Amino acid sequence: MNFSSKTVEEAVLKIAELPGIGKKTALRLVLFMLKDKYHYTEELVERISKLKEVRFCNECHNLSDEELCVICTSPKRNKDIICVVENVRDIMAIEETGYFNGLYHVLGGVISPLDGVGPGDLEIDSLLKRMSVSKIRELVMAISPTIDGDTTIYYLSKLVSADVEISTIARGVSFGGELEYADELTLGRSISARIPYQERTGN
């Protein structure tokens, strides 16, 4: 790909580093911004620069503009149910369904010995701390149905008090699939039709 402008080339190469964007797509984006560089481009730069101000919620580790996110501070949320997820994208996917009205906790991944990820690398201690100071009735394990996901659920189930109900999303989400890619209807029904973890494992 030949460029007559070094500035355009550098912009294309930088945008092409973003996930899922190749050089051709990056070039189309750059050419679009050049057509309206005094309006859209300035607004885009302003919005991107504000990303530096985004933080993680001190309570659930979701994306937030303040110390606590809007979900944790909402008086309309059910405070005695926590939905445990791998990442913030999973929260967005579940919220889009409108089927869940409790709180969340982002682990930051799953236990994966082959990838060198152990319990200490995840936000497990902070989850247990939340549960020690709040009366939590149920933990919904909305973790991708993979071997590593199941390992993580099993590990967490051994740490949680017996008086806390542990449930998992129904298998409307196929085994081996990632939660964030499930369609809204399937994911929503999987949340609503969640089942006790002990029942699923036959314990």
Strand segment count? 7
Give the helix tally.
Answer: 9
Cα end-to-end separation: 60 Å
Q: How many structural units, i.e. domains?
A: 2
Overall body shape? elongated
Q: How is the biggest beta sheet arranged?
A: 5 strands, mixed
Radius of gyration: 21 Å
What percent of residues adopt helix (DSSP H or I)?
Answer: 40-55%
Topology pattern, helix = H, strand = E: HHHEEHEHEHEHEHEH
What name does the CATH topology of the largest domain carry? Dna Topoisomerase Vi A Subunit, Chain: A, domain 2
Q: Which regions are unreliable across 5 or more consecutive residues at pLDDT < 50?
A: 199-203
β-strand percent reads: 5-15%
Classification by helices and strands:
alpha/beta
CATH domain class name of the largest domain: Alpha Beta
Q: Whole-number average pLDDT?
A: 86
Enumerate the strands of the largest sheet in spatial order, edge to edge or round the barrel. Answer: 4-3-5-6-7
> From the coordinates shown, what is the CATH architecture of the largest domain?
3-Layer(aba) Sandwich
How would you explain this protein's 3D organization?
The protein has 203 residues and is an alpha/beta fold. It folds into two domains: 6-53, RecR Domain 1 (Helicase, Ruva Protein, domain 3, Orthogonal Bundle); 76-201, Dna Topoisomerase Vi A Subunit, Chain: A, domain 2, CATH 3.40.1360. The protein has helices at 6-15, 23-35, 40-49, 70-73, 88-97, 124-133, 147-157, 184-192, 197-201, and strands at 55-56, 63-64, 81-85, 103-106, 138-141, 165-168, 195-196. Strands 4-3-5-6-7 form a five-stranded mixed beta sheet. It has a two-stranded antiparallel ribbon with strand order 1-2. Helix 1 crosses helix 2 and helix 5 crosses helix 8 (184-192). The radius of gyration is 21 Å and the shape is elongated. The model is unreliable at 199-203 (pLDDT under 50).
